[in-house]
Request: fold
Amino acid sequence: MAKINTVAFIDLDSKRILGFSPEGCTPNFPPGTRYETKIPFDTLELEKLVKRFHEEGLRDVEEKTMRQVMLEAPIRKAIRDALIARSQHLDPLNKALNYAILGVMDERYRAAMDAKTKYETFLVAQAYEESKAGEDVALEHPMFHETVN
Reply:
């Protein structure tokens, strides 16, 4: 059985990892994307590249979420200020309701931002192996069948 290498595609300008693929496959990048193909020497090097890819993606998601929070902050402040100003002229029950609405609004916004910052990357093989025990993956491997038979 021939060994199929996994290759990493690395952007020439930013040195960011663009993705992974089996050796010999051409990536589906936009025209004009400049990249180099790197064949990891061993599994340890591949693991380091996958970890770096994950960290880069996580950093991107966090930066995007922070930009969104900063963009939405004035709008959220205006809504909060309007509700607080309106609450000054209400009876205690409705005033408490408005403050409860503010609390719910803040909690839902935090939950939405937390959901946006969840970022997951893995290779196809990792996704496959994630749902199985290590022994099951080993028993299904072609090398196991070659040595047993």
Observations:
- Residues 1-39 form one domain.
- The longest strand covers residues 6-11.
